[in-house]
Design goal:
Elements: H1 19-32, H2 41-45, H3 51-62, H4 73-86, H5 90-95, H6 102-120, E1 130-132, H7 133-139, E2 141-144, E3 147-149, E4 155-157, H8 176-184, E5 195-200, E6 205-210, E7 231-235, E8 242-244, E9 257-261, E10 266-273, E11 276-279, E12 283-284, E13 289-293, H9 300-308, H10 311-314, H11 320-326
Parallel strand pairs: 6-7
Antiparallel strand pairs: 1-13, 2-3, 3-4, 4-13, 5-6, 8-9, 9-10, 10-11, 10-12
Helix pairs in contact: 4-9
The structure holds a DNA duplex.
Length: 330
DNA sequence: AATTGTATCAACCGCAAATGG
DNA sequence: TCCATTTGCGGTTGATACAAT
C-alpha cells in the first residue's frame, strides 16, 4: 500500500495556469489570505487544482514583488558564492535575493550560471576520461537520452556526436508504442514478432531489430560513405546476431542498455524517455573502453573548487554559520 | 520553408520535515 | 510519544520557443 495522494488526482486540473485561474487565486488570497491550509484552499477559491499546485503558483508567480527576468551580476555572485558554501539549498539562496524564487534560481543555475562559471575558468575543464564499459554496466542509471549517470551522479556520454531518434524516425508499420515496448521489455527486450528500424542520424543508415521474417544481414556499402537509409545492421530475433550486454538485469535503467553485435564486435547504446530517446549508432569496441565522462558534468565539490578559485566570486564567500544567521525562514 | 537539435522554465513528483491533535 | 496531515524542498519532466542546418 502506497502513500496516500495529497489530492484527488482524477478531479484535479494539471498543466499551465490560465489567466482566469490566476486571477481567481490572486483575488482570493489578497482578500482572505491562505487560511493556513493550502490543501483546503482550491475548494474555497473554486479551482480544480491541487493545493500544492496553488501554493507553488502563488509563491512563484502571483505573490507581490516577484522579480522575473535577467539576473544581475551581483545576483550571480551571491548565487555562486552561496552555492559554494551550502550547495543546492535553493530556498536558502532565494532568501538572500529579494523577489527571486527558489525555482527561478534553480533553473537559472542549471541552465545558465553553471555553464557561465565553467566558461570563466577553462583551467578547471575536466579532461575527457574514458571509463570502462563494464563500470557503466555495473553502476549506471538512466539520466537522459545519450548519457548514463553513475552512482556519484557523474554522467557519461557517447563521444562520437549526436544521436537521437524521435518516434517519427521509426519506419514501416511501427509506431512509437512499439518503440517503447522494445525499450521497456526487460527480459526479452526484443519482441521477435516486432520489427523495429532506427535511423542512425550520423550517416543516415538504418538498423533493424527483430521481425518474424529475418532479413539477411546486410551492411552499408555505398561508395560515398552515406548509407541513405539502407539497412546497415540487422539484429536477428532472439539475439541471433547480438548480445544484450547491459540493461535492467545489469543494474542499468530498464530503458537503457548497450548492445554488442557479435559479428562485428561493435557496440551501440540505447536509451529512452517516453516517446523519444536515443540510440548511439554502432561504435568500435576498443578494449572495452567506450564512454567518456561528460566534461560539462561537475559534482558539488568541483563546482565549489571552481567558484572558490574564480575571482568574480571571492568577495562573496560566506561561511556556514554566517549564512545560517542571515537566513530568515517563513 | 521544413526539419532537427538545443535551451528554457513552469509545473509536477516524491520525500522529508514540520505541525498539531 | 505517536500518528496523520500538511508544508516545503529539490530533482526532474515535458511543452514550447528559439537556433541551426
Amino acid at each position: 500500500m502506497g502513500r496516500a495522494p495529497c489530492c484527488d488526482k482524477a478531479n484535479v486540473k494539471k498543466g499551465p495556469w490560465s489567466p482566469e485561474e490566476d486571477a481567481k487565486l490572486k483575488d482570493y488570497i489578497e482578500q482572505h489570505g491562505t487560511g493556513g491550509n493550502w490543501i483546503a484552499l482550491p475548494q474555497k477559491v473554486g479551482l480544480k487544482r491541487c493545493g500544492k499546485s496553488c501554493r507553488l503558483r502563488w509563491l512563484n508567480y502571483l505573490r507581490p514583488n516577484i522579480k522575473h527576468g535577467q539576473f544581475s551580476e551581483a545576483e550571480d555572485k551571491i548565487i555562486c558564492s552561496l552555492f559554494a558554501s551550502i550547495g543546492s539549498r535553493w530556498s536558502i539562496i532565494a532568501s538572500q535575493l529579494p523577489g527571486r524564487t527558489d525555482n527561478d534560481i534553480k533553473n537559472y543555475w542549471n541552465t545558465k550560471l553553471k555553464k557561465k562559471m565553467m566558461a570563466m575558468n577553462p583551467s578547471l575543464q575536466r579532461k575527457p576520461q574514458q571509463i570502462t564499459l563494464l563500470s557503466i554496466l555495473q553502476s549506471s542509471a538512466y539520466s537522459s537520452p545519450s548519457s548514463f549517470r553513475d552512482s556519484n551522479n557523474i554522467s557519461y556520454y557517447h563521444p562520437h556526436g549526436s544521436f537521437s531518434y524521435s518516434s517519427n524516425l521509426l519506419s514501416g508499420n511501427n509506431t512509437s508504442a512499439s518503440a517503447n515496448s522494445f525499450f521497456q521489455a526487460q527480459e526479452s527486450f526484443i519482441d521477435p514478432t516486432q520489427k523495429c528500424q532506427f535511423k542512425d542520424s550520423s550517416n543516415n543508415s538504418m538498423f533493424l531489430f527483430g521481425g518474424e521474417a529475418t532479413a539477411t544481414a546486410t551492411s552499408c556499402s555505398s561508395s560515398d560513405g552515406s548509407c541513405n537509409n539502407q539497412i546497415s545492421h540487422v539484429i536477428e530475433p532472439e539475439f541471433g546476431d547480438a548480445s544484450f550486454v547491459g540493461g535492467a538485469n545489469n543494474n542499468i535503467h530498464p530503458y537503457s542498455g548497450v548492445l554488442e553485435d557479435n559479428n562485428t564486435q561493435k557496440l551501440m547504446m540505447f536509451s529512452n524517455a517516453g516517446g523519444s530517446g536515443s540510440v548511439s549508432g554502432w561504435t568500435d569496441k576498443q578494449n572495452g573502453l567506450l564512454w567518456e565522462q561528460n566534461p560539462l558534468d561537475y559534482g558539488l565539490d568541483e563546482i565549489k573548487q571552481l567558484i572558490s578559485t574564480n575571482n568574480s566570486c571571492n568577495n562573496f564567500l560566506f561561511d556556514d554559520k554566517k549564512t545560517q544567521e542571515r537566513v530568515t525562514y517563513f
